[in-house]
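Render ATP-dependent DNA helicase RecQ in 3D.
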Amino acid sequence: MDKLTKVLTNKFGYDSFREGQKEIIEHVIAGQDVVAILPTGMGKSLLYQLPGYLMEGAVVIVSPLLSLMQDQVEQLKMLGEKRVVAINSFLSFEQKEMVFRNLSTYKFIFTSPEMLQNERFNHALSSIRIAYIVADEAHCISQWGFDFRPDYLRIAKWLQQFRQTNVLALTATATSNVVKDIKSTLLMREPYEYIHSLDRPAIAYEAVEVENTQEKLAWILGRITSTSGPGILYTQSRKKTEMYANELQKRGIRVAYYHAKMDQDDRILVQQQFQQGQLEWICATNAFGMGIHKDNIRQIIHDHIPTSIASYMQEVGRAARDGVQSIASLLFTATDVEQAFYVAMQDFPEEADIRLAYKSDNIQLQLPETTARILEYWKEVLTEQETTNLFQTIKQKKWTEILRLYTILQNGVCIREQLLHYFDEQLTTRPVHCCSKCSLHINEIIDNRKQPTENREELDWKMQLDKLLRS
C-alpha cells in the first residue's frame, strides 16, 4: 500500500480513491498550482484535506459561506482532527485575538475573502508556515467577484505576499472563461487542470411550462404530496419559501423553509435536520445548498428560471450524490425571464449610482450596502467611464445567460445535451431517464407515497417543538 492510500485508509476510512483524486493530490503535494473541476459528490473536500497530513505547515482554505465553513470544520472534527478553526464573524473580537495568537497550532484554517483584508489576520498568517492555499467553490471568483463580492478580486493582491505556496482551486462547475478568471485572480503559474465530466447520468431533467403562478403552485403541491423525497424546492423569494413550507406542512409534509434573512442558528438547525432526515423537504432560496452533505436527495424542483446555467447546475447537482436515480424539475412561464433578470440586477449599480460614487467620498451613506461595496472596489481600479462600460457589459451577459437557459428549457433539443454543450462538453452516452424531451418515466424514478399525506397523523416531534418555541 503506497503512502497516499495508507493515509486515505487510516485517516478517512476509504480503501481506494475516486477517479482523478489521486492525481490531483499528487500535484498538490508536488507544489504545483491546481484547478480541479469535479461534480458535486465527487469528494472535493478530500483533495485539500489529505495532502495536509503529508506536508508541513497549515492549510488555508478560502470559503464563500459561513455555513459551508462551519460544516467543513465539523466534518474534520468528526474525523478526529482538533487542529481546525473557522475565522469569521461567528467569533467575537476576543476569540479572534486568541486564535491569531495561537495560529501556528492549527492545521486547517478556514476563512472568507473578506477576512483576507484584515491586517491583524494577515500579520498572524505571515508568522506561520503555510503548506498551500485552497480556493473552495472557486467559481465564486468569477460568478460573484465582479458584481457582488469584490473581495474575491482582492485575493490577487493578498496572494502576492504568499506566492511561495501553491494554490488549489476547487469547484463543481466552470466554463472556460470562468477557469481563466480563476487562474488570473489566483495568480496561477501553469496550473495542472483536472476537469471531470459534468454529466450526472443519475439525474433526469424535467422542464414544465405552465400558464401562471397558480398552476405552478398546484403542480408543486401535487408532486411533493404524491411522491417521496428527500428534496429541495428552490424559489427566488423569501416570502415564497415560507408560503410553500406552510402549504406543505398543512398537508403533512415534514418541511421547513430556509433563506438568508433567517438567524444563523435557525439556518444551521434546519440544515442539520434535513441532513439527519428529520425533514423531508426544504423550501429555499439559493442561499441553501453549499456544504450540504446528504447523499440521498431524490428531487430538486425550481419554480423559476435561475439567473445562470452554472447556478442551475450547482443546485440540481445536489441530487443523487449516491448515484441512485433522481430528478430535477423546473417550472417556468414566459414572464419568468424578466423576473430572473430583475432578481439578477437587484444590487447592480445604475449609471446614476456610478456617477454619485465618483463624485462622493462617502457613498456608504448614500447607496445600498451591496451597491456601495461594489462601487468602492471599482472606484479604486477603473475610471468612471470604464466602470459604466463594465456594468453595461455584465448586464448584457446576464441577460444573454438567462435567455440561453430559457431557450434550453423551451426548445425541442435534449436538455442534458445542451447543458453539457454550455460547458464545452459533448454527450457521449444518453441514460435511460434523460430528460422530458428525450426519455423520461416519472413513475419509475420517484416512489409514489403509499398513503395520502393528508392522513399522516404526526409530524416529526422536533419540528413541532421548534414551531412552539418560535411562536
